[in-house]
From TrEMBL:
This is SSS family solute:Na+ symporter. GO terms for cellular component: membrane. It comes from Acidovorax temperans. Gene3D superfamilies: Sodium/glucose cotransporter (1.20.1730.10). It is a multi-pass membrane protein. One of its GO terms (molecular function) is transmembrane transporter activity.
Length: 420
């Protein structure tokens, strides 16, 4: 691994990896109903970065990603399981990009289900492009959207609203239920701490201090950026221009298009095209990562295009569920966290688990949390069962970990008695 990144470079990469369609469109969607508290995803991501700074030094010293840490502690089989479980949260991120792409397609006049088919086809095609070319184009589109977001805030006379965002954010938090707020915040923060996509930048720092400072800088930057989408939406709401907004997922692309559309003819449509490219780019990047994870299987190695198609199908299936953008990501993140959470905590606490005990612990969390998610999707439980999914999954993992240890302890005691 090349350890060449300065603190500023690490911070820039961490921010760029976090600032995407889910962050941008999802925060705007939440702001319609939760006010400034709609910034919760961005703010939780920022605090997750600050938490990552606390573990950045030992992470940098180890030089290992989360699944390599599991592999070293619990064996190669567990390394593969954690890598496979990463598909779970990546599918949620892909679904968010699909949501965003479809929202832009609707604004461009492409009706459902044609918009979904077009978005899926373009994401698949974009994933086959040269990564260097694609990353430059898509990153540029996201940067452009950020600049236009600031312009839209100023044009809507929302600067004072943004400067007073913190007290307003705290005030608006009561629009969420306590369980919804706690589950969402915890899920986002923990995913940042355990996410291998963030770890790669931390471990590439020149020194451990660079890694720690870079994470802290990224956290503060994301907290500052996190209030922007909600501030724009609230400023436009107060001006009455969002009264007929049909779909919350469209509010940010519509706002950005509206902001630049008044400058010159055609700029509004151009902004929508740029946002669609950003959605496609983010979707293509995560699709490549999912296909790479799937390629560890014999079928995936022999048929990489089939692996990409399968990953895209999973993302499309999750996107078909009637959820908000942030809710889609959080619900699926929880399954991953419920699976790896107990074993990851054991690693941090330097608690030794046998390979069999760790595997049983992770599988228990995956099965229970996954079943709760499926039951919620099928209407057997409340639509927002995220707290139950996380709590039940972690409880199952902890129960199996403790129970496995008790059984092993009894077995050792029996062996000792028989030897006597």
């Amino acid at each position: 691994m090349d350890r060449v990144l300065s603190s500023v470079q690490i911070a820039a990469l961490l921010v760029s990896a976090s600032y995407g369609i889910g962050f941008l469109f999802g925060s705007g969607e939440l702001a319609l109903t939760h006010g400034m508290a709609g910034s919760i995803y961005g703010i939780a991501t920022g605090f997750g970065m600050l938490a990552l700074a606390l573990v950045a030094k030992p992470l940098w010293k180890s030089g290992l990603s989360v699944w390599d840490l599991f592999g070293r502690a619990y064996g190669t089989q567990l390394r593969g399981l954690v890598a496979a479980l990463s598909l779970v949260w990546m599918a949620g991120v892909l679904a968010a990009q699909i949501h965003g792409g479809v929202a832009v397609a609707r604004l461009l006049g492409v009706p459902d289900p044609h918009g979904l088919i077009v978005v899926l086809g373009l994401i698949y095609a974009a994933a086959q492009m040269s990564l260097r070319i694609a990353s430059g184009v898509f990153t540029g589109c996201l940067l452009l959207s950020g600049l236009v977001l600031v312009y839209a805030l100023v044009a809507a006379d929302g600067l004072a609203l943004y400067l007073g965002a913190v007290p307003r954010f705290v005030e608006d938090l009561d629009t969420f239920s306590p369980t919804q707020l706690g589950t969402m915040s915890l899920a986002v923060c923990l995913l940042v701490v355990t996410g291998a996509d963030y770890h790669q930048f931390v471990m590439s720092g020149r020194t451990a201090r660079n890694a720690v400072v870079g994470c802290a800088m990224a956290g503060l930057a994301l907290i500052l950026i996190g209030f922007l989408p909600a501030a724009v939406v609230m400023a436009m709401q107060s001006g009455g221009v969002l009264a007929d907004m049909p779909d919350g997922k469209q509010v940010i692309p519509w706002a950005l298009s509206h902001a630049v559309g008044g400058l010159a003819g055609g700029l509004g449509a151009g902004m929508l095209v740029a946002l669609s490219l950003a959605a496609l780019g983010s979707g293509a990047a995560i699709l490549r990562a999912m296909a790479s994870a799937m390629s560890t299987t014999p079928t995936g190695k022999s048929r990489p295009r089939l692996a990409s198609a399968a990953a895209l199908f999973i993302g499309a299936a999750l996107a078909s569920r009637d959820q908000g953008i942030v809710e889609t990501m959080v619900s699926v993140n929880i399954i991953y966290l419920a699976s790896v959470g107990v074993c990851f905590a054991a690693l941090l606490a330097d608690i030794s688990l046998t390979h069999q005990r760790a595997r049983a612990t992770m599988v228990a969390g995956l099965v229970v949390s996954g079943c709760v998610y499926a039951a919620s999707w099928l209407g057997l439980l409340a639509p927002q069962a995220d707290a139950l999914s996380l709590g039940a999954g972690l409880a199952a993992s902890m129960g199996v970990a403790v129970g496995f240890g008790l059984v092993a302890g009894h077995q050792r005691a029996d062996v000792t008695k028989s030897c006597r």
